[in-house]
């Protein structure tokens, strides 16, 4: 009996050891490609803040299966900030579980006060241009006030909200309840109200009034002149008139060129030099 107990105990220990080895492999595979998430080149964060954001990015990254990266810059070596982010993705190959994988990037340049958000792979679909526009508008006031930690935290939380099917699965105490309503209001204000504001603009109304007045006056002038009864056949003698000759003379040729419209729906997205498509949103802070 004692030998049997020892035998089963040994088998149990071996099984636990094998399980722990495979578990370790699984955990490492999740973070194998992306070890760092916060790249504070402009030194805007304290060590404590950077550590907290790294932990938050790792936690939300696992829940959303997306690498959430923050880049702070003190200049972009003369590049446009969007070009800088494109090149960064091509050269660094970030991603949640593989190179060039699911990635959401927030980049700010302190020199030009530029902000740019980009979504690659899964993030391109879940964080489309309009959603990134909304997130950018939400965090811009904090950036302008120098509250960088708060802005970066909000970027991660709000991105995570859209990157999961059900926000209740996010295991943290952040209040996600008002995000959907705020975004819907933002989208509505920047589509319907913008158009209605154009139609109520005084300049637009003045132009319409002048055009309508011109049409009405033209109709009145045309009707007041009476009906014209004389035409080309009035003085023609059809018995003696004959067409002697007929020919067409080519005078000139005019070719009009027009640029083919580009499909830039959403505005901020594009394709990197390496061929990776992405969504995007840019602005100032």
What's the gist of this structure?
This protein is α/β, with parallel strands linked by helices and 285 residues long. 49% of the residues lie in helices and 12% in strands.
Structure write-up:
- 49% of the residues lie in helices and 12% in strands.
- The chain is of the alpha/beta class.
- The longest helix has 30 residues, at 2-31.
- It is elongated.
- It starts with a helix and ends with a strand.
- Mean pLDDT is 77; it is low at 11-31, 192-204 and 255-267.
Q: What attributes does this structure have?
A:
285 residues, alpha/beta, Diaminopimelate Epimerase, Chain A, domain 1, six-stranded mixed beta sheet
Give the N-terminus to C-terminus distance in angstroms.
75 Å
**What gross morphology would you assign?**
elongated
CATH class of one domain: Alpha Beta
Listing every helix as H and every strand as E from the N terminus to the C terminus, the arrangement reads HEHEHEEHHHHHHEE
Helix run count? 9
Largest sheet properties: 6 strands, mixed
CATH-defined topology of one domain: Diaminopimelate Epimerase, Chain A, domain 1
Mean pLDDT: 77
Instruction: Report the structural category.
Output: alpha/beta
Low-confidence stretches: 11-31, 192-204, 255-267
Helix content: 40-55%
CATH level-two architecture of one domain = Roll
How many strand elements? 6
């Amino acid at each position: 009996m004692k030998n049997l107990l020892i035998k089963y105990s040994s088998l149990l220990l071996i099984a636990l050891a094998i399980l722990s080895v495979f578990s370790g492999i699984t955990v490492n595979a999740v973070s194998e490609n992306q070890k760092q998430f916060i790249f504070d080149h402009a030194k805007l964060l304290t060590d404590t803040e950077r550590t907290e954001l790294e932990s938050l990015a790792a936690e939300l990254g696992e829940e959303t299966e997306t690498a959430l990266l923050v880049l702070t810059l003190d200049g972009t070596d003369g590049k446009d900030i969007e070009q800088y982010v494109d090149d960064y993705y091509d050269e660094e190959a970030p991603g949640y579980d593989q190179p060039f994988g699911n990635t959401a990037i927030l980049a700010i340049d302190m020199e030009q006060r530029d902000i740019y958000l980009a979504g690659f792979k899964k993030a391109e679909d879940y964080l489309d241009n309009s959603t990134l526009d909304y997130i950018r508008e939400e965090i811009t006031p904090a950036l302008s006030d120098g509250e960088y930690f708060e802005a970066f935290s909000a970027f991660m939380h709000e991105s995570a909200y859209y990157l999961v099917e059900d926000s209740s699965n996010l295991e943290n105490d952040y209040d996600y309840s008002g995000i959907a309503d705020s975004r819907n209001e933002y989208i509505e204000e920047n589509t319907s109200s913008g158009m209605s504001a154009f139609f109520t603009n005084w300049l637009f109304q003045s132009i319409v009034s002048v055009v309508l007045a011109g049409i009405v006056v033209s109709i009145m002038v045309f009707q007041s002149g009476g009906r014209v009864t004389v035409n080309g056949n009035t003085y023609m003698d059809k018995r003696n008139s004959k067409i002697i000759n007929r020919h067409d003379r080519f005078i000139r040729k005019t070719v009009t060129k027009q640029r083919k419209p580009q499909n830039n729906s959403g505005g901020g997205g594009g394709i990197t030099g390496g061929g990776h498509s992405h969504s995007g949103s840019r602005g100032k802070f």
